[in-house]
Design brief:
The protein has a single domain, classed as TIM Barrel, CATH 3.20.20.70. It has ten helices and 14 strands. The strands form two sheets. An eight-stranded parallel β-barrel has the order 1-4-5-6-7-10-11-12, surrounded by six helices. A two-stranded antiparallel sheet has the order 13-14. The radius of gyration is 17 Å and the shape is globular. The N and C termini lie close together (7 Å).
Length: 265
């Protein structure tokens, strides 16, 4: 069975792993290399590694950290944080990243996405879009750790990034981040229906059913989670975990009939 992509996202602040709630209240959860090792032992198919403070601190995510995780863990890495030019993309690829996520710079200079896709290939370039739901029910794209409103709405931004050559859209709900109350299915559905590239749902996963809903109700091509895979129990004790392939197969087998998931031998 070919399963939809489900993978963890590790947030870092320099060289330490953290987890946030609605992009705030960072909690230190330990050494990201150790967390990546545990995910690797659990046969995770891929991993996203994002430095949330890199842009604000005018730096790129630690190349040493990317290199160490790439050397020790046999999984494709999507890496982002502070990427602002083609040389940054090149350095991250050389350090071991398979895909590079671009966030603030893509919002400021959309043409940069076209340049990066032309230079390194669309499959290498992921555009990360952080979204808040406003009081009037509309959605707005934010940058700078969710503090700066761009005045743009996510569907049009996603369509523009698609046209610029982005290989994937990493769609993050700021309101759902770390809440473990489920993805924003309405947001995911709007963006997924509007673009021709895969959309990765992020923000809010707390159960396997939430992941299933993001894909089969929200139309996402993949789902990623942070808190769900690093915390355990009501008190959110740090315990790196990931569902087994058997659990994922059981989850998605319930929705296979009539869906877009393909069975393979």
């Amino acid at each position: 069975m070919l399963l939809p992509r489900v993978f963890p996202t590790l947030l870092v602040n320099g060289i330490g792993a953290i987890k946030t709630i609605q992009f705030d209240h960072p909690t230190y959860i330990g050494d990201p290399i150790n967390a990546a090792r545990i995910f690797n032992a659990n046969e995770v198919d891929e991993l996203a590694l994002l430095d949330k403070r890199a842009t604000a601190e005018q730096r790129i995510i630690s190349l040493e950290l990317v290199s160490k995780i790439s050397d020790e863990c046999f999984m494709p890495l999507t890496v982002g944080g502070g990427v602002k030019n083609l040389e940054d993309v090149r350095r991250l690829i050389n350090a071991g990243a398979e895909k590079v996520a671009i966030n603030s710079q893509a919002m400021r200079h959309p043409e940069f996405v076209r340049e990066a896709a032309k230079e390194f290939g669309s499959t290498t370039i992921v555009v990360s879009i952080d979204v808040r739901k406003m009081k009037d029910g509309s959605y707005q794209v934010f940058t700078n750790e969710g503090l700066k409103e761009t005045g743009k709405e996510p569907v049009s931004v996603a369509q523009e990034m698609d046209a610029m050559g982005a290989g994937e859209i990493f769609l993050n709900s700021i309101d759902r981040d770390g809440t473990m109350q489920g993805y924003d299915i309405a947001l995911t559905g709007k963006v997924s229906a509007a673009v021709n590239v895969p959309v990765i749902a992020c923000g809010g996963a707390g159960t396997l059913e939430h992941i299933r809903a993001a894909i089969y109700e929200g139309g996402a091509s993949a789902a990623t989670a942070g808190s769900m895979f690093v915390f355990q129990g009501r008190k959110r004790a740090v315990l790196i975990n990931f569902p087994s392939r058997a659990e994922l197969e059981e989850l998605f087998s319930k929705a296979l009939e009539g869906s877009a998931v393909t069975k393979v031998e």
